[in-house]
Amino acid sequence: MNRRALRDGLVATLSWLLLASAGDASALDVPFQKYALPNGLTVILHEDHTLPMVTVNVVYRVGSRYEEQGRTGFAHLFEHLMFMGTRRAPTKMFDAWMEKEGGWNNAWTSEDYTDYFDVAPAHALPLLLWLEADRMSALGHEMTLDKLDAQRDVVRNERRQTSENQPYGKVELRLPELLFPPDSPYHHPVIGSHEDLQAATVDDVKSFFGRWYVPTNASMVVAGDFDPAQTRALIERSFGWIPAQAPPQPPPIPPARLDHVVRETIQDNVQLPKVVMAWPSPDRYALGDAELDLARVILDEGKSSRLFKALVYEHDLAQEVKVSQNSRDGGSDFEVEAIARPGVSLEQLETAIDGELRRLASEPVPAEELARAKTQFETKFVQRLESLVERAMVLNLYQATKGDPGYAERDLQRYRAVTPASLQHAVKSTVRLDARVVLHVVPKEKAAGEGGAR
Amino acid sequence: MRPVVFRLALGALCLSELSACGGAAIVGTSPPPAPVASAPAAAPQETDRLGPRPALGAARDVRVPPPVVFKTANSVTVWLVERHALPLVSVTIALPAGSASDPADRPGLAHLTADMLDEGAGDLNAIALSAAVSDLGTTLSIDTGVDASTVSMTVLKGNFPKAMRILADVVARPRMEARDFKRVSDLWINGLEQRQDDPDEVARVVIGAALYGARTPYGHPRDGYVADARKVRLADVKRFYANQWRPDRAVAVVVGDVTRAEVESALGATLGSWKAVATPAPPEPDLSSLVPAAQRPRLVVVDRADAPQSVIAVVRDGVSAGSPEAPLLDLVNTALGGSFTSRLNQNLREDKHWTYGAFTAFTHPRGQGAFVARASVFVEVTGKALKEMLGELENIAARGMTEEELSKVKAQDRADLVQTYEIVGGTAQRLAQLFSLGLDPSFDVKASVVRQGATLQVLAEQAKAHIDVSKATVVVVGPKDKVVRQLAEAGLGDPVFWGPEGPMPTARAVR
């Protein structure tokens, strides 16, 4: 049956990466060499000579869950400060020198990790490594209030632009607070509060740098068109002298439990109301995590998905639906969101959503439907690796989360192993109708009159 | 989803209204002189273990092989790029049926028509069609820009024939049934009502109306207006489809691990039965319309009460994709507002900290293009930020760019190509865009040669001619009670107040 079709599909899927690599293995394989410098920096080299480009990806195992009391948003603010320069590369020169060679860069911060990536024509690799080594060794020591103030204001404008001034954007600011208890490091959003961003000091920057931005807490992928022997030597010269330091201890994560329904209504500058439901869910790679990823596909991917079909296609209830399993080290959440069509109440929408969630928890998913979800998930997973920048990021995230850049194949095995019974069990134990956050977003002008809009 | 938080807004450098976004560049002939490393001026006195900034070798040339071009028996143009490194194939089918082809009283019709294509096609209803796409592990993307509509898919090599079957049904045999139309149309109208919630979307709509006129081929939003949308019927869609979607106007761009024989066979078996209607192809819309500078409003304000930021934009006319000036203006744009180190972003973000990012773009559509500078700024500094923005534009228009900037933007131009043509999907979409713009398949290579030969003087002339802001229009989407006072100092006269659909009467959601 479809199981077989799926297997054939997967063989085809996997073979292209084998072709891409020199490998003769029988599984998903992005070839790499991994080693550590004596100071503890993990280095991963991935050669691909298809195009004359390179990327350097550096992950530091620190994110917003590592922040101190009263310093929400600091890990991400720090990420911005990493571009503010040192004595060797004065303010603005990190970007200027990179762009001068045709390169560019970006970075992101999550609750658990901070990732920096540079992309450039192959000839510029020594510059990229030099710039990364420079800031890894000197950034915190050379911090000033001017640099901090500059990015503090940029970040506050980022908060305004991407959350406060976006329709429904306030949800992501509020949801973590409702979902995780005050003593949880996942209680606040990555972007943080204006108040805490204002409170950050230069000393905070120095101590955060000294604690988390150390070689043992970092891993670096170099990917693309380079000579491995020369590059190894260059990496040793550039990073090897940076002093070793004891690996930092990540803060503990108290388990998040929600045993009742938490409801809240917020007002926003929107035309149509929205309901957001959220549950604390299994940690990244834990039992149930892959199941909920596939539950997400079954619920919202494509017109044949269950929530789309029930709420958008067959009944005129929702303008859009969206489901996500946001996997984190110790504070994952599963979310279902829907925007109501005009004239439809959020109660109607909730009833319809609950019906589909109940069905998923009470009946095993037909094999064909699960097979389709796996195909969708796995093909997307593999296609992501076509881009060099994405491939480097994937290698480094597996290193950061699993200590193994080559974990992709084993990661995929988690998804292949999902059964109708295991999926049903994961939904039943996580997506509980009697224990969840239910957040309503209602149009501003209507909020007053609606009273207890729930 | 709780997103991770980025240093830069991804895609912020791309203007959404017009289809030609950014100039793809191809590394051409001459490599740049090797950059000379100098000891950093502020190097510490004692021995630095890291050492000085390294000297770099020369950039390597890149060759981008042009596609093989041929036609099928029923006159579909095919652009094929064979790339055998990975067993992936990407297909984009494009037609010059963009929003510029909308009937004057049916803005958004091209968009809605494209949206109806995958609501059931051939033997499959909408759900079955979507399931068939999912079974290939892929998604079907449908998009309508000002000049073209496109349908795309990327699949594993082995699924190419199946993917072609679905794509061919979608473009040649859409069902267009009433039940599906009702849903798609309702969602469309609701989406237009929601559009007014998003300040960037409002700015997009207002910019188009101010520059081109609210009821012109390029001036109305691609997705239409609320009031007109309510009048669109299924018969309109069917008529538009029959006139516009025909094989003699289509290109199929195929990129990936596939041979010409395989492509001919798959296209013959799937698109071969697609017949053009007997009527002649529809006439090209008038793509030159532009509100005369003297009649454009100087300052448009759209009130967004309580907003913490204002979207500010400076907009004026630009040039078409085929204009010989277009490639040169892309270089000027990179220096002015097209990259992180550009003048405008450095000023407003890195020096003043008033924004998360500021950018500029020349849109290069098939017809009359535009220039836009844009940023979302903290409300309290709306007036000051606008002044700085205008100042940067005036400055580059008056003095051109520096030697150092010229070297940077040429390097960026060479590097862009590699990334534009890196993955099969991006390659197929860029080539389909070139076709839709009426440009030849090696346009990017030739444009890059022009750019690499550009001199400071030529670019200064371009900047002077095309970035002069004396006749530009300023658009501000922000809280009226806070911004109007600040704008008084800009010397732009009294603002014109428009709604979220520009000068169109605002249609509020009916609830």
Quick synopsis:
The complex is a heterodimer of chains A (454) and B (511). With 454 residues, chain A is α+β, with helices and mostly antiparallel strands.
List keywords for this structure.
heterodimer; A: 454 residues; alpha+beta; Cytochrome Bc1 Complex, Chain A, domain 1; six-stranded mixed sheet; five-stranded mixed sheet; globular; disordered N terminus; B: Cytochrome Bc1 Complex, Chain A, domain 1; 16 helices; 13 strands
Number of strands of chain B: 13
Number of domains of chain B: 2
Largest interface: A-B, 107 and 97 residues
Low-confidence stretches of chain B: 11-44
Indicate the multimeric state: heterodimer
Secondary-structure-derived class of chain B: alpha+beta
Which fold name fills CATH's third level, the topology of the largest domain in chain B? Cytochrome Bc1 Complex, Chain A, domain 1
Count of discrete domains of chain A: 2
* Overall outline of chain A: globular
Radius of gyration of chain B: 24 Å
Strand order across the largest sheet of chain B: 2-3-7-4-6-5
CATH class of the largest domain in chain A: Alpha Beta
Q: What share of residues are in beta strands of chain A? A: 15-25%
For this structure, the CATH topology of the largest domain in chain A is: Cytochrome Bc1 Complex, Chain A, domain 1
Structural summary, described in words:
- The complex is a heterodimer of chains A (454) and B (511).
- Chain A is globular, with a radius of gyration of 23 Å.
- Chain A has 454 residues and is of the alpha+beta class.
- Chain A has a 6-stranded mixed β-sheet, sandwiched between helices. In chain A, strands 7-11-8-10-9 form a 5-stranded mixed β-sheet, with helices on both faces.
- Chain A has helices spanning 2-20, 74-81, 93-100, 125-138, 145-164, 171-179, 194-199, 202-212, 228-239, 289-300, 306-313, 346-362, 367-383, 388-402, 408-416, 420-430, 444-450, and strands at 33-36, 42-47, 53-60, 104-109, 114-121, 218-224, 261-268, 274-281, 318-326, 332-340, 436-443.
- Mean pLDDT of chain A is 92; it is low at 1-26 and 446-454.
- Chain B has 2 domains: 68-270, 2-Layer Sandwich (Cytochrome Bc1 Complex, Chain A, domain 1), CATH 3.30.830.10; 293-498, Cytochrome Bc1 Complex, Chain A, domain 1 (2-Layer Sandwich).
- In chain B, α10 packs antiparallel against α11 (382-399).
- The relative contact order of chain B is 0.18.
- The model of chain B is unreliable at 11-44 (pLDDT under 50).
- The interface between A and B is large, with 107 and 97 residues.
- β4 (104-109) of chain A pairs antiparallel with β1 of chain B, so a sheet runs across the interface.
